[in-house]
Amino acid sequence: MNISGMVLGLIGGLGLFLYGMTLMSDSLEKAAGAKLRGILELFTKNRYVGIIVGIVFTAIIQSSSAATVMVVSFVNAGLMTLYQAIGVIYGANIGTTVTSQLVSFNLSQYAPVFIMVGVLMLMIFKNPTVKKAGEVVIGFGILFLGISTMSSSMGALKELPAIQNLFMSLDNRFFALLLGLIITAIVQSSSVTVSIVLLLAQQGLLPLKICFFIILGCNIGACMSAMLASLSGKKNAKRAALIHLLFNIIGSIIMAIILLIGSDWIEALIMHISSGNLGRCVANTHTIFKVFQVIILMPFMSWIVKLTYLIVPGDDNDAQDEYEMKYIGDGDRLSSATAIPQVCSEINHMGEIAISNLENALDALLTKDDKAAKEVFEVEKRIDYMNKEITDYLVKANQISLPVGDRKKLGALFHVVSDIERVGDHAENIAEDVEKLIDMKEDINGMAGDEIRKMQEMTVKILHLSMDMFNLEDDSHLQDILDLENAIDEKERELQNLHVKCLTAGECTAQVGMMFSDLASNLERVADHATNIAFSILEEDPEGDKPPKVELV
């Protein structure tokens, strides 16, 4: 084999390896991302349990970068605290070593079998989840096919004296660390870099002592993805990314000092553990280094979190005056794994603002507070802005490959945003009547005012229950919502009858009477929108029929 053929084989093998790993990781995330994310949210209340979850989670999706980016997004969306996140980040650093362990076992001969099984799964099955599982199997096969190709090319290259001299001359430990950092920062995967180092060591092209320092550099370079993901996030998101960076920098410094003191006995120990297999030596080194770092830094979790507050001081602006989104940022960097949780948090935030604005509008009307009415108009502008930004974000999310479970929710989220925006519109309609009442020198008081207050309480309650259903994604409040919706419909009919009686008895003017009638209708329609929000989270039935939406008049 000539040199050009060797190089091309090496490049092609690397391409197959990268593609196989990406396909496997992405497909796993799409097939089970939503369920895995639920587990991640559920079992991270304790930071030590979070370590175990982080190990398992990262081992499954085969990417510490993806796991850490997901954690950063969770923190940004308010779904996870920094003290919960740090455990997962610690665990992710151990879980990422699974890839190099798999590579160290020569499974290349089975690569065609994995590819064939995956292709059959794609061809035979129609279920999207099974198809994604088939892609995972194909990715696994392609990964090992790439390893086989690279190994063959390296085996030929090592026969060239110039190549041998080039690699064996890499005796500068600082340069080795920097090399590992740069390569990993470029490919954004420590597993890829360590796997390449493993193959080079197997071929005798890299001394084990140098491999140690390249691995340390990989650890730091692996932080690049999380740091980039945090740039458009809130301060806590930046702090979460910093936790990952600080863990790897501090851990790598500690390991570097230990290696400088006793690299010979460490090398001898790892060679003994790995039975002299150089590939296994690299894989075991990667795992041992990570486990040791976690053990050493585990008692200092709280200190590292506090350090991030010193590096990134202050709190995020509440964004009351500025039209800025709280959870989804500018939407330029969407993570397929966390796009939906983030936008759900933003929708919930929008819902809270809309409910509060409705209450303020009703209070302004019943007290004839012109200043409060003007504030309602200003908040409504913000709600309209949020509606546009969230809708644009959902459109962008629809253009990326989402987990199967998230893809099913996407359409419903468009409707929820629309329903919340309409709640805001009804609040504005109510506020518009304040100036009319002031100009007419009229009031909605007495029995009419009391009845409106009762209807207001029911309407606000159904909104809160609906948003709770949306957030919890269960139907625990469904019957209460249906009962309230019926009660509100009945109350609206009562108020319309009261309106007619007042007009007939001459107890109010026609203008005030119509305003009262419109007010009751507005509240009834708000309840309809609340019911729509509640129904939006319900899954399709086995026959594919969605729950009916409430028809609005």
Overview of this protein structure:
The chain is elongated. The protein has helices at residues 3-42, 47-61, 64-76, 82-95, 97-104, 111-124, 128-157, 161-168, 173-187, 190-202, 208-221, 224-230, 235-273, 278-297, 301-311, 339-367, 370-398, 404-440, 446-472, 478-505, 510-536. It folds into two domains: 3-311, no CATH class; 339-536, Phosphate transport system protein phou homolog 2, domain 2 (Methane Monooxygenase Hydroxylase, Chain G, domain 1, Up-down Bundle). The protein starts with a helix and ends in a 17-residue tail after the last helix. Helices cover 79% and strands 0% of the residues. It is built from 21 helices and no strands. It has 553 residues and is mostly helical.
Kindly summarize this structure in a few lines.
The protein has 553 residues and is an all-alpha fold. It is built from 21 helices and no strands.
Class from secondary-structure proportions: mainly alpha
Number of domains: 2
Strand content: under 5%
Order of helices and strands: HHHHHHHHHHHHHHHHHHHHH
Low-confidence stretches: 540-553
Mean pLDDT: 81
* Strand elements, count: 0
Number of distinct helices: 21
Fraction in helix: over 70%
* Radius of gyration, whole Å: 30 Å
> Alpha-carbon distance between the termini?
77 Å
Largest sheet: none
The best one-word shape is: elongated
